[in-house]
Structure formats: structure tokens, C-alpha cells
Design goal:
Distance between the termini: 105 Å
Strand content: 25-35%
Largest sheet: 6 strands, mixed
Number of helices: 3
Order of helices and strands: HEEHEEEEH
Helix content: 40-55%
Radius of gyration: 35 Å
Amino acid sequence: AAAGTGALHGTGRRRAAPAAAALVACRTPAVRHRSSSIGPRLVGQALALLLAALTCACSGYSTKRLTDFPGARTIAVLPIENLGYYRDLDLRLAQHVAEEIRARTNLALATADTADLILTGRMSVREVPIVLDKEGAPIQKRLEGWLDVVVTERATGRVVRHQRVATTAEWRFDVTGESLDGSASNEWTRRLAEQVAQVLERPF
């Protein structure tokens, strides 16, 4: 009886060990699964923050409004002199320059008789064919030109900025929505206006 009892108890102990091992095996993957799911989430969040930082850095825009004229609070954007024959480009360029200054600097727009700074400019632009069809007619053109920017202090007449900025814009005649009067000229004036705002941000 003692032997039978011992055998029975021994068998019970031998069966309990696999059951405990199975229980540990069942619990272990769940713990590993929870810990492994945390890593990708943290990596994903870090990558998202890095991508946002790189996007802000590459776009050329700052998270705060900038200006490099500590004593100036206001600026007047005067009509831009157009040295070419493209009508209304000077008016659109002056408008876009004012919008970029308002958006990217601490300078407020004012009239020429009250502003601390006066911005004037001279622009020139031309069309250049870059793609021709079989008959030699242009199907794609480039609008290229420059703008001379001059910023002076109204009270003293001192020139604090004098720089030329330039850019290009292209359009195709066979693409819907692209034209000189529409997409190309708007893109060209916008790009120049952004460069003018950057000119105001640089040290002098």
C-alpha cells in the first residue's frame, strides 16, 4: 500500500511539472507581446517628431515672427518699378511682398509718411521658350526675372538693405490650368516675395 501510495504520489508530481511548464509557456508570449508592442510605438512617435522638425527646417519658415530691425516697428511697401512690358506683375509682386512681410516679420505695414522703413524695388522679367514642338513652336516656356530690393530708414535716409533676388517659373501651353497670366506669374511673384521677406530677416 505504501508503495502504491508512493507510486501514486510520484505519478502526481510527474504530471504536475508539465502542467506548470505549460502554464509558464502560455504566460510568457503574452508578456513578450506586450513589451514588444511598446517599442514600435515609441519609435513611431520619435520618427514623427523628427519628420515634423525636418519639415519645418526645410520649408524655410520659422515658428515665430522674425525681424532684424530692433528699432523699427513699421514698413511701407511702395509701388515697384516695372522695367518690362508685363502689365500688373509689379502690382501683384508688391501685394505679395506686403503679405510675406506681414506673415514672416514683426514689422507692421504703414504708409510712406509714417513708416520707420521704406521698401522700394525695380523688377525685370522675360519669357524664355524651353520646349518646342515638331514645327518649332514653343509648348513650354519659362518666366525668369529679378527684383532689386532697397530698404531705407525714413528718418535718416540710410540704406539698410540693397539686394537683388531672382527666380523662375515654368508653364506649358498644353496643360490645363497652366498659363502665363495665371499659374506662372503667380508662382513667380510668390517666390520673389518670399525671398524679399528673407532679406529682411538677415543681419546687416
